[in-house]
Design a protein that fits this description.
heterotrimer, A alpha/beta, B mainly alpha, C mainly alpha, A: Rossmann fold, 3 domains, five-stranded parallel β-sheet, globular, B: mainly alpha, two-stranded antiparallel sheet, 11 helices, about 70% helix, about 0% strand
């Protein structure tokens, strides 16, 4: 090697590399930007990583809703939404880079979807600073804390509401002793203390609480400690995600433990994957709980049809993205503006009422154009908000698995 | 309670023992730690899953198929990646094996996605002996692992191949002088490693659901077991694995269960301070 | 558009700092740090906790660097009598332990909920809109500073001694140098640099949680270093840029290629990185550039 090559990397390759990267970034203007009569909306969802299972349905709901609005003539005199989907890879750092792309390159002034709480936390300040509207599906309380300029809206139950509601469901089953087995993650942990307080109030004894890490090779020790403790609890409140739940349940069955299990629906249903993984025999009798869409209501039934599913389909999160798109459309139409600082001011009025109850967004748009007051009810919830942007009146579904099918036990209405 | 915990530890240790043997054989014969052992385990589990869930083979046959498939894959990977790097430092090979780990894990992810899968196998109720609960999976695991270890023992001690492997492991130059073809031995080593790791993959897949991260969760523990037993010594690997399994499980009596892995790590850190060659390793001259 | 590029450049700078540390520990000293992600987390959390307590971001950065340096020194001491592969595994284990502790000790680290609201250096000096640019400027200064410091270190007697240890420590010991002290010091300096990277990561995101520090960071850093040429800091600049373009570029690929779903695209991206690593190691172990070596002497370039 000559002296010069020691100090200078191959210049041609270097320039080629920079050129290629530059081209990638700058060279796709047609795909990366919305046309003039389109309104760019960013949709940040997990498609890969540990939460990757939930992205696709939320995406589908957003696309279907957008199409429905576009087919009915769009808003603001014929303008349509153009959706830009980004994968947050279930990590905040990727979510941050994706959000920056949505804001800067795709020129979105609203970012919706946002399933995971850590991702929401990481991008919150960026969005507020950019005066962009932020609609999340995450449960961590901190998301709506602080000065949000009215831009942050949560289409989900807060973790601290969720915990007591689930405790209520367990209390209603008349179990006297319970133990808690929880995964260390951002939406589960805040549920535990409020749930325990609720149990205390009702005189139910909490025997033991064990918090486990995700991605362990085996949960045998945890299961044996909780289920095999003496005395064994009548029921166990199991909080986590699908993969660890499958291991835990199999371990419980293998060891022939008798305690009943109450889990979250993202574990025990997960779009049918749980029963598929363990088989109907093992799943028999397991109960689960989740903030649900308003089951049995006409608005939810309409949504099920929209998604092309049957009347038993349980869409835990997809309804939220449908509602987010609808809210955006209605708010923009009402204020005749695409500026988030302007249109977010009318969201509560449109969603809480008082006004004519309407669940079909096309209908609702007509009413708004005619100047009628409405009370929009969504596919994910009744869509009522408090002044912090948190949802009120969320329904919770309590289910039991019987003979391989999900059976609704009761609906609990939250705060 | 203690007996139960020790039993659990033993069985967990058996699952770890198989890839630990594979790892230690690779280290002994090819002189580098194979970081891809976790991904190989995952791929082995997926092969078995495909055979079991898509082709509807009973689990035993699925395991056999997986063993063959993984053996072929391992030899292939060796040919493509490790053979060109044969003369390089152990660290280069280690980093290359990290690359292999990525590729294997993500090919599995590409084909089968991220969601957890399970074998189509009925879950049986446990047997009870005195106060101990022994479930059927644990019995199968123990039986399979012990048979595999017995087979390895026989191969290493009583066959020409085994003698050749031990020779290459002890002193490659001398072995070459004696006419032992290192490449041939390497191929056989990968075959054995593939079979062992695939079996471990099936056992792990029975224990918990199969997803692309299955093997990754075992990597630290497998390495710890092999190091504990002394890298290069297969019997040490077994001893290390069983010890680690028991230590990890018994530690849950004293500390919160989510700190189990810390215990393994601390155990090997302390052991290495006192006895760098591991329990059964021979003292190695550095470089 | 500029704001997006500013983000990317900021992330690249942090990656470069990590790469500089790896170049020092591995390139210069031949000590493999597989637990980089864990030390990175240690630095980020230390800085965050100190900054949150109100002591200021400078104190936070210094604390992070010190804690990581001490932890690295401890790890190096334990592995003294072991060969390189053992150090690799030990650091891997250590990294995992750190992650576990961060995840479990909620009272200190917030557990999986993380630490929000981390203060930023020189916040308030400029308007909110311009802050990102200021931060990037600061970061570039830090990178340059480290770069220059390391180049000086490489050419110093310490640097020469360390490289000699990498090649053959017995000879060095024979010459009367304290090999142990050299290795520990070098590893510790590398650790301090990781601590600085962690601190800036915390300041930039203002919110940290355990999921940000997965082992893939270690892999990306190795990739950047190998692509740039192990030991070469100039090459690292290019290597880090290339890796970042690969990662972010695939984001744009998605807009254009609709055939594969997101999981598959993410899988392909990682497969490409793995393959890239392997191909570089086989065909171009020296990466894009060569390490600094004494004039014309190939004998001193590292055996890869």
């Amino acid at each position: 090697m000559t002296r010069s090559s020691i100090y200078h990397p191959n210049r041609r390759k270097f320039l080629a590399g920079i050129g290629a990267s530059g081209a990638t970034v700058l060279g796709a203007p047609n795909v990366a930007r919305a046309q003039d009569n389109e309104i760019p909306i960013g949709v940040l969802l997990p498609f890969t990583g540990s939460q990757g299972a939930y992205g696709p349905d939320m995406r589908k709901a957003a696309e279907i809703t957008t199409k429905m609005i576009a087919d009915a003539g769009g808003i603001l005199g014929g303008r349509k939404f153009k959706l830009f989907f980004e994968d947050d890879e279930s990590t905040p750092t990727a979510g941050l880079a994706a959000t920056k792309k949505l804001l800067e390159i795709n020129k979105c002034q609203a970012v919706i979807g946002i399933w995971g709480s850590p991702i929401a936390m990481a991008i919150k300040n960026v969005l507020i600073q950019a005066n962009a509207c932020m609609m999340v599906s995450g449960a961590a309380n901190a998301i709506t804390d602080g000065d949000t300029k009215g831009l942050v809206w949560r289409y989900q139950a807060k973790a601290t509401d969720w915990g007591p509601a689930m405790a209520q469901a367990m209390i209603s089953r008349k179990w006297k002793t319970i133990s808690i087995l929880a995964q260390q993650n951002a939406f589960v942990i805040p549920m535990i203390e409020p749930a325990k307080k609720e149990f205390e109030k009702a005189g139910v004894k909490v025997l033991d609480t064990v918090v486990y890490n995700p991605d362990q090779p085996s949960y045998r020790a945890e299961v044996q400690r909780i289920f095999g403790g003496s005395p064994a609890p009548e029921a166990v409140m199991s909080l986590g995600l699908l993969t660890d739940f499958v291991s835990i349940v199999r371990e419980v069955v293998r060891n022939d433990y008798k305690s009943k299990i109450m889990a979250l629906s993202i574990m025990a249903d997960a779009e049918g994957k749980f029963i598929q993984s363990v088989g109907a025999d093992v799943a028999e009798g397991i109960e689960h709980f989740q903030p649900s869409p308003p089951l049995g209501s006409p608005n939810y039934a309409r949504f099920q049809k929209l998604m092309g599913a049957d009347a038993n389909a349980l869409f835990l999160f997809a309804g939220n993205t449908h509602d987010q798109i609808c809210t955006l459309a209605l708010a923009m139409e009402k204020t005749k503006s695409t500026d988030p600082l302007v249109y977010t001011k009318v969201i509560r009025e449109l969603c809480n009422g008082p006004g004519q109850k309407v669940d079909d967004v096309v209908e609702a748009l007509k009413l708004v154009r005619a100047g009628t007051k409405i009370d929009f009810v969504g596919a994910g919830s009744d869509c009522d908000f408090d002044e912090r942007g948190d949802q009120l009146n969320r329904h919770y579904g309590h289910f039991r698995i019987e003979k391989g099918k999900q059976v609704l036990v009761q609906i609990i209405k939250g705060v | 309670m203690i007996a139960q915990v020790v039993l659990n530890g033993f069985v967990t240790g058996m699952i770890i023992a198989l890839p630990a043997i594979a790892l230690t054989l690779t280290y002994g014969i090819l002189k580098f730690p194979n970081f891809a052992i976790g991904a190989m385990l995952t791929v082995g589990a997926y092969f078995a899953y495909i055979a079991n869930a898509w082709l509807h083979l009973p689990l035993v046959w699925a395991a056999v198929l997986a063993a063959v498939a993984l053996a072929i894959t391992s030899v292939g990977v060796d040919r493509l990646v490790f053979q060109p790097l044969r003369e390089r430092t152990a660290i280069t090979l280690l980093v290359a094996s990290m690359g292999v780990s990525f590729v294997l894990e993500n090919v599995a992810r590409f084909v089968l996605g991220n969601s957890a899968r399970s074998f189509e196998v009925a879950i049986a109720r446990p047997q009870r002996y005195f106060e101990l609960r022994v479930n059927m999976e644990q019995i199968y695991t123990a039986a399979t692992a012990l048979s595999a270890m017995l087979a390895i023992y026989i191969i290493l001690r009583h066959t020409a191949l085994g003698r050749a492997m031990r020779a290459v492991s002890d002193n490659p130059a001398l072995a070459a002088v004696r006419g032992i073809d290192r490449e041939r031995i390497a191929r056989w080593m990968w075959v054995i490693a593939g079979v062992l790791t695939a079996i471990a993959g099936v056992l792990a897949g029975l224990d918990r659901a199969i997803d692309p991260l299955l093997g990754w969760n075992y990597v630290v523990t497998v390495f710890a077991a092999a190091i504990l037993g002394g890298l290069g010594n297969p019997f040490g690997a077994v001893l290390g694995a069983l010890t680690l399994g028991v230590v990890e499980e018994t530690s849950t009596l004293l500390i919160p269960p989510n700190y189990r892995q810390v215990v393994s790590f601390c155990a090997i850190a302390f052991l290495l301070l006192a006895r760098p060659q591991g329990l059964l390793g021979s003292v190695r001259v550095k470089r | 558009m500029t704001a997006y590029l500013v983000t990317i450049l900021t992330l690249v700078c942090i990656a470069i700092i990590l790469g500089l540390s790896l170049n020092l520990q591995w390139g210069l000293c031949g000590m493999v740090n597989f637990g980089m992600a864990g030390f990175f987390a240690l630095g980020a959390y230390s800085a965050a906790l100190v900054a949150l307590s109100g002591a200021g971001t400078l104190a936070a950065t210094v604390t992070a660097a010190t804690i990581c340096a001490l932890a690295s020194a401890a790890t190096a001491l334990i592995s003294l009598r072991l060969s390189d592969e053992y150090l690799a595994i030990l650091t891997l284990g250590f990294g995992e332990v750190i992650r576990l502790v961060i995840l479990s000790e909620e009272w200190l680290t917030g557990g999986s909920l993380g630490l929000p609201g981390i203060p930023r250096p020189f916040w308030g000096l400029v308007s909110e809109k311009d802050y990102e640019l200021l931060f990037l400027g600061l970061l570039i200064l830090v990178v340059l500073g480290l770069f220059i410091a390391l180049e000086i270190l490489v050419r110093s007697p310490f640097g020469r001694a360390i490289r000699a240890v990498r090649e053959d420590d017995i000879v060095v010991a024979t010459l009367g140098k304290n090999v142990t002290a050299l290795r520990v010091k070098a590893f510790a300096v590398g650790g301090a640099i990781i601590g600085i990277a962690g601190a800036f990561h915390a300041f930039y995101l203002t919110y940290i949680d355990p999921s940000q520090f997965s082992a893939i960071i270690t892999a990306y850093t190795f990739m950047a270093v190998i692509a740039g040429g192990r030991g070469s800091n100039k090459g690292l600049l290019l290597g880090a840029a290339v890796i970042m373009c690969l990662i972010e570029g695939s984001r744009f690929l998605k807009d254009v290629v609709q055939v594969l779903d997101a999981t598959q695209l993410a899988a392909i991206r990682l497969i490409l990185i793995g393959l890239g690593l392997i191909l570089f190691l086989i065909y171009r172990p020296q990466g894009f550039a060569r390490e600094y070596s004494l004039k014309g002497s190939k004998l001193i370039s590292p055996r890869t």
